[in-house]
TrEMBL record:
It comes from Aliirhizobium smilacinae. Residues 117-195 form the Polysaccharide export protein N-terminal domain. This is Polysaccharide export protein. The keyword Lyase does not apply. The keyword Signal applies. Pfam families: Poly_export, SLBB.
């Protein structure tokens, strides 16, 4: 049997000429298995150097592993993103799953009760004054009371007969009542005062967007939370798991998933007068790439989604090409999670190397899954997929090896014989 190998590859920086005589060796019919494997190993070593020039469906697992934790200078690309890899086990999956995002609460620092309800500019009030005698300022033989309609003016004040100008804006109903009462004690007969609220434009919030009825919602005196005012606007037009709530308060803005607000009471903050709430429908999606049966952008279509369900939505990995040890999930993660996974020392080291957050303050992290272990089917059920995640299934190194050997004209059977060696070298 005569084995001829033709090759023209860049190996360790040197061009190997395409000369049959340089790569030719003859074997007799009694070729020993170890000799064949020796030749296979030699071809594989050359092939692994040349496989990088073979077209592929993204990086190999070894390339992702190699770039993890390296600076742009170490990688050799000026603007390369600095990231780290975390192996997902039972502990890691639970840490990520148990983390609760608190975007609105962190942004506004709001907790506890609704705050103090005060009178504001434009509010309509009904001031009722009672007197004990029929000959008082506000009483007659028929009635011992008088009701005065008041509108708080732009300067925060309003006029009351026999009292004068009273400051209402910024005061509670009781504080305004006490001021009026103090002014009347020397003028009216045993007076008493009750103040009621009519229309209160200063105590309203705007709810718009993907709700059934956009409106300005007046707030009651006890205070209302985000879900309360959304309900008064007819509720969202979409499911909570694909509805995002954006709250604008002055110059600050915070956005959270309605599902998170419903499930986490700390996120269901009390709104304040003047707040603007916008509800938008944005179906949560993830992207599935690599050695899978369907490369696509896929909607969750459910309240929650774990890793196994996400891969299944893309019809799973391609059995002929996928590397079971090379499933990766790329994500910009909240800093609290990154610190919990990496620790402060490793986090600081990556920051010095150039790891940078995105516009929302989240840091790049790559989760690695080894689907060759049985417990991965359990771990994958507890690891949550988030919107905009990228799940990448790397191809097996033997795939590129086979392609390369075809390019150089070597027998493909050598790749089959040496697949195990290639796998070991890549690990």
């Amino acid at each position: 049997m005569k084995l001829v190998v033709r090759r023209s590859v860049c190996f360790q920086g040197h061009q190997i000429p395409d000369q049959e005589a340089a790569c030719q060796q003859s074997y007799g019919p009694d070729l020993e298995y170890r000799d064949l494997m020796r030749v296979t190993a030699i071809v594989i070593c050359a092939a692994l150097a040349g496989c990088q020039a073979v077209p592929g469906e993204g990086p190999l697992a070894s390339a992702i592993n190699e770039d993890a934790g390296r600076s742009p200078a170490e990688i050799g690309r000026v603007n390369a993103a600095v990231f780290d890899i975390v192996d997902v086990d039972n502990h890691t999956a639970r840490l990520v799953s148990d983390y609760v995002s608190t975007a609105l609460k962190r942004r506004f620092g709001i907790g506890g009760g609704p705050g103090r309800a005060v009178i504001g500019i434009g509010d309509q009030l009904k001031v009722t004054i009672f007197e004990a005698g029929a000959d008082g300022l506000f009483s007659t033989n028929d009635s011992k009371q008088a009701t005065i309609d008041v509108v708080v003016q732009p300067d925060g004040t309003a006029a009351i007969p026999y009292v004068g100008t009273v400051r209402f804006a910024g005061r509670t109903l009781e504080q305004a009542r006490q001021e009026i009462l103090a002014s009347l004690k020397s003028k009216a007969v045993e007076p008493d005062v009750i103040i009621g609220m009519g229309d209160t434009p200063s105590r309203s919030v705007t709810v718009a967007g993907a709700v059934n009825r956009s409106a300005q919602i007046p707030l009651n005196l006890s205070g209302e939370q985000i879900t309360d005012v959304i309900a008064k606007a007819g509720g969202p037009t979409s499911q909570p798991y694909e509805s995002y709530v954006t709250l604008v308060r002055g110059k600050k803005t915070g956005t959270a998933l309605l599902k998170s607000i419903v499930e986490n009471p700390s996120e269901n903050i009390y709104v304040q007068p003047g707040d603007q709430i916008f509800v938008t429908r944005d179906p949560r999606t993830f992207t599935l790439l690599g050695a899978v049966k369907s490369n696509s952008r896929i909607e969750f279509g459910a309240n929650d989604l774990n890793l196994l369900e996400a891969v299944a939505l893309g019809r799973g990995g391609n059995d002929e090409t996928v590397n079971a040890k090379g499933y990766f999930l790329f994500r910009y993660e909240d800093p609290e999670v990154v610190l919990g996974l990496l620790g402060q020392r490793r986090f600081d080291e990556l920051a010095r190397k150039g790891m940078q957050p995105d516009k929302d303050g989240r840091y790049p992290i790559v989760y690695r899954f080894d689907m060759s272990h049985a417990d991965s089917l359990l771990v994958g059920q507890t690891f949550p997929v988030k919107s905009r995640d990228v799940i990448y299934a790397s191809r097996h190194p033997a795939v590129d090896l086979t392609k390369f050997l075809r390019v150089i004209g070597a027998p493909v059977g050598i790749a089959v014989q040496g697949a195990a060696i290639s796998n070991n070298l890549s690990d």
